[in-house]
Amino acid sequence: MNIKRNITFALKTGSAISRHGKWPLLVGFLIIDIFSVFSQAVCPFGDKLAEQLQSLVKNNAPELIYIQPSKGIYETCEDLWFKAYLLDAQYFTPSLLSKTLYLQLIHEDTWKIVWQEKYPVENGFSQGHVFLPDSLPEGNYLLEGFSQYSFLANGEEMKAVRRVEIKKQVKPQALIDLAAKSQTETKYPIQFTTFPEGGHLVSGIPGKLAFKAINVKGLSVDAAGTLLEDAVPLVKFKSTHAGMGSLVFTPEAGKQYSIRLSDPDTVIYLPKVMPEGITLQLTGRKKDYLEFLVLQSPSLPQRSICLRAQVRGGWFTAWQRPL
User: How far is residue 13's CA from residue 124's CA, in Å, rounded to a whole number?
Assistant: First the structure.
């Protein structure tokens, strides 16, 4: 029998006070770390990783920039209108750091900068337009934006980039029968990605396997199929929303697991099952807390589990429990 431990902790919902005022706080990423230690008093590995995560937050750029052009295809001799949002990289609220947005247009084939300008930023927002002269050759261009605080501390990687296409003349396209298109969408090859809950499939421990299906255009598509164990059908499944879904099964070490999709007829092999380990599963979602279940292989020794949750670089909660 597996050794089990049920751990619950509260995640408050609603608004939160940030250093820029009161804004709705949307929890985008919840990092939950489990550390196995034999000491009941301290959690040294958890503290060490927490310090590393905090160091990453400090080294990352404090601002994120999102550029939104008015459309994706432009003709020469017209204006490219845009909006830019400068956000606090940790809280995703409008940033008050920068007062100037730097914008440039680069030809994607030659990497030549064909235009540069700067625009004022007010309360984290900026907008304006770029005139596209007739001298610009047709092709794909990159609209790049940056500020004083949007670069990484250890490099010059550009994050705010949008691709636009420039033509001498945009010709109208024939209307597409959307109904017929939706019926044939899944006939094309799809990308089917699996996500074992907790990161790995562990032998003898029931686990949830989530999946997502998209087509070659990056759009979600419905998916259905069968989970196979050594080529023997085990569980049937289908997506429930936007090409996403999940299935639950108990893997066994030494067996080969694969997924056969119904349409198109494709076989995807799952990662190798871990012979032993510890898993973290989300078992309940309530208004004020999430409930997690920690399961351990029976062959592993008894130990204490340190569970630490961080949201956007900020420490949220931590517990240590015997397992």
Answer: 25
Residue 313: predicted pLDDT? 60
Class of the CATH-defined domain 63-167: mainly beta
Rounded CA separation 278/274 (Å) = 10
Q: How many CB atoms lie within 10 A of CB 172?
A: 5
Dist. CA 228–CA 257, nearest whole Å:
6
Q: Please answer whether residues 16 and 314 qualify as being in contact, where contact means their C-beta atoms are separated by less than 8 angstroms.
A: no
d(CA 195, CA 259): 13
Task: Give the integer Cα–Cα distance in Å for 107 and 73.
Answer: 14
Q: Is the pLDDT of residue 67 over 60?
A: yes
Closest listed residue to residue 85, CA positions, set 70, 108, 101, 74: 101
Residue tagged 């259905």 (tokens)? 224
Q: Tell me, what DSSP letter sits at residue 13?
A: -
Question: E strands of 135-256, at which residues?
Answer: 139-146, 160-167, 190-196, 207-215, 224-229, 232-238, 244-249
Task: Report residue 175: phi and psi, to 5°.
Answer: -70, 145
Question: Which residue's entry shows tokens 């069968």?
Answer: 226
Whether the model pTM is above 0.70: no
pLDDT band at 305 (very low <50, low <70, confident <90, very high): confident
Q: Is 154 left (phi over 0), alpha (psi -120 to 50) or beta?
A: alpha
201-269: CATH number? 2.60.40
- The answer to whether the CB of 164 falls within 8 A of the CB of 141 is yes
The single-letter code of the amino acid at 6 is: N
For tokens 């060490």, what's the residue? 48
Q: What is the pLDDT of residues 187-244, one digit of tens each?
A: 557 889 999 998 899 999 999 999 999 887 778 899 999 999 999 999 999 999 999 9
Domain boundaries, the chain: 3-61+277-322, 63-167, 201-269
